[in-house]
Specification:
Order of helices and strands: HHHEHHEEHEEHEEHEEEEHEEH
Number of helices: 10
Structural class: alpha+beta
Oligomer: single chain
Bound molecules: the ligand Nc1nc2c(c(=O)[nH]1)N[C@H]1C(S)=C(S)[C@@H](COP(=O)(O)O)O[C@H]1N2, molybdenum atom
Helix content: 10-25%
Strand content: 15-25%
């Protein structure tokens, strides 16, 4: 069986209906291409890990116990590499992360290309231990290595008219088997309102557990927006675009009634097909209560005063 699900999540709940159907279509097509060989044959040797040296731990860190490196790097959503939680760890090592550039365009002083090395010099790296809550009702605690997204945005020199920022991620059919198939609308596209992007909790992550980000977690750079569902945290970013209007994101296209633009963690707004009131922390048996804004309400609720969070989910 290619498709496996965690035992407490019926398959039809994991993905929006449209995605579920496209996944069946994918399986059908993958079958024609050789099925398991297509996904399984791509597993590469584990990459050498490089450390960042001693890091300051940000006071924004949670004091909850981080999940193990094993959990964080083998239970992933990175659909470009496959629909199962263990596909990214097996397949993503094929992605080349050097050289890597990020295209900056839209409402900016002038369009530019930033190299990864330049980006890494923008700000000191620090450790940020954050909760990550997936829309599928599981969560984990991750010791990220990163820096505030604001520092990268400042380097992009957006115009005052920019109200939203859009992120596009790598869609390379040579190394990502799924982008040949219409499982999602590739390239994976996400967006933030400018004030969300500039918020001090929002980071660019380039590592975890003190080491360079494993490919399956979004190497070489990804967003982490801890008060939003995990899908807002786009992996392997190659393009940043500033705009006056918000984009229709990949997940909004996949399930318009299921995934909103804001996607703030909200235990009171049910996903149409399951409750968001509780979550299973990876490695734990009993479910815990999901907190508004994933427990970051004190810091971020103020961004949404006057916004009906049931309507703008
Ligand atoms: N490019 C890309 N980014 C992505 C995804 C994806 O499929 N593709 N999945 C998202 C989802 S649904 C989640 S929950 C998080 C998971 O991050 P992690 O695997 O590092 O825990 O990545 C997000 N970023
Ligand atoms: Mo997710």
């Amino acid at each position: 069986m290619l498709i496996r699900h965690p035992p407490d999540l019926p398959g039809s709940e994991i993905t929006p209906q449209g995605l579920y159907l496209r996944r069946r279509q994918f399986l059908h097509q993958a079958g024609a291409l050789g099925g398991a060989a297509l996904l399984g044959g791509l597993a590469g040797p584990a990459r050498a890990q490089a450390g960042f040296g001693p890091l300051v731990k940000s006071p924004t860190s949670t004091d909850e116990k981080p999940n193990t490196r094993q959990d964080i790097t083998t239970y992933n959503n990175f659909y470009e590499f496959g629909p199962n939680k263990d596909d990214p760890a097996r397949v993503a090592s094929r992605m080349k992360t050097r050289p890597w550039t990020v295209q900056v365009e839209g409402l900016v002083k002038k369009p530019l290309t930033l190299g990864l090395e330049e980006i890494l010099k923008l700000a000191p790296l620090e450790e940020r231990i954050y909760r990550l809550r997936c829309v599928e009702a599981w969560s984990m605690v991750v010791p990220w290595v990163g820096f505030p997204l604001k520092r990268l945005i400042d380097a992009c020199a957006p115009l005052g008219s920019a109200k939203f920022v859009e992120f596009q991620t790598l869609a390379d059919p040579e190394v990502m088997p799924l982008v040949r198939l219409p499982l999602l609308d590739w390239p994976y596209t996400e967006g933030l309102r400018m004030d969300e992007a500039l918020h001090p909790l929002t980071i660019v992550a380039v590592g975890l557990y003190g080491e360079v980000l494993p490919h399956q977690n979004g190497a070489p750079l990804r967003l982490v927006v801890p008060w939003k569902y995990g899908f807002k945290s786009a992996k392997s970013i190659v393009r940043i675009r500033f705009a006056e209007q918000s984009v229709t994101t990949t997940w909004m296209k996949a399930g318009p009634g299921e995934y909103g633009y804001f996607a703030n963690v909200n235990p009171e707004v049910e996903h149409p097909r399951w409750s968001q009131a509780r979550e299973r922390r990876l490695g734990e048996f009993l479910k815990r209560k999901t907190l508004p804004f994933n427990g970051y309400a004190d810091q971020v609720a103020g961004l949404y005063t006057g916004l009906d969070l049931r309507r703008w989910f």
